[in-house]
Specification:
By secondary structure, the protein is α/β, with parallel strands linked by helices. It has a single domain, classed as Phosphoglycerate mutase-like (Rossmann fold, 3-Layer(aba) Sandwich), CATH 3.40.50. Helices cover about 30% and strands about 20% of the residues. A seven-stranded mixed beta sheet has the order 3-2-4-1-6-7-5. Helix 2 links the parallel strand 2 and strand 3. The longest helix has 16 residues. The radius of gyration is 15 Å and the shape is globular. The termini are far apart.
Length: about 170
């Protein structure tokens, strides 16, 4: 059994004078991430490895998650996560070492939403209902996969176990 967690970065400041890659989190984004981290810790959603997009808002999202765990999980900045389409995300996941049982990706839409739709063939009814609308900023999709190895990942092979948004956790990031 493998567990894949997709966390869309939290709300960033609007695109103005800054390049897209340099946009920091907004105040709302900074408030939302600790609630998601607390949820992850409460439900034992600790990754064996985290891959983080190199853009500032994704790195800040990761940094704000860290206090949720007593020991920081290993992570790697993964440049290919920035603006990655679903098929590239699949390739990244399939490259994950076999010893990693739980993988967290922190990145962007529309790729994350497309990927989750393509690879979660079934799921918990309430999670599917919430996910049916969209994947807002700072939302977390938890997909369980009955796989022995990440290389076996195929479309519709996962089960959407949980889907939470800041709004469902009592925060407003959306």
């Amino acid at each position: 059994m493998r567990r894949l967690m997709l966390l869309r970065h939290a709300k960033a400041v609007p695109l103005r004078e800054l390049a897209d890659e340099e946009r920091p989190l907004s105040g709302r984004g900074r408030e939302a991430v600790p609630a998601v981290g607390a949820f992850m810790a409460r439900h034992a959603l600790t990754p064996g490895l985290a891959l983080v997009s190199p853009v500032l808002r994704a790195r800040e999202t990761w940094e704000l998650l860290l206090p949720a765990w007593p020991k920081p999980p290993p992570h790697r900045i993964e440049p290919r996560l920035y603006a990655a389409p679903a098929e590239l995300l699949r390739l990244l996941v399939r490259e994950t070492p076999a010893e990693v049982q739980s993988l967290l990706l922190i990145g962007h839409n529309p790729g994350f939403e497309q990927f989750a739709r393509a690879f979660a063939g079934s799921g918990e009814a309430e999670a599917l209902a919430r996910f049916a609308n969209k994947m807002p900023t700072a939302s977390l999709a938890v997909i369980d996969l009955a796989l022995d190895d990440w290389k076996q990942l195929e479309p519709q092979s996962g089960r959407l176990e949980r889907f939470v948004t800041p709004k469902s956790l009592g925060k407003t990031d959306e």
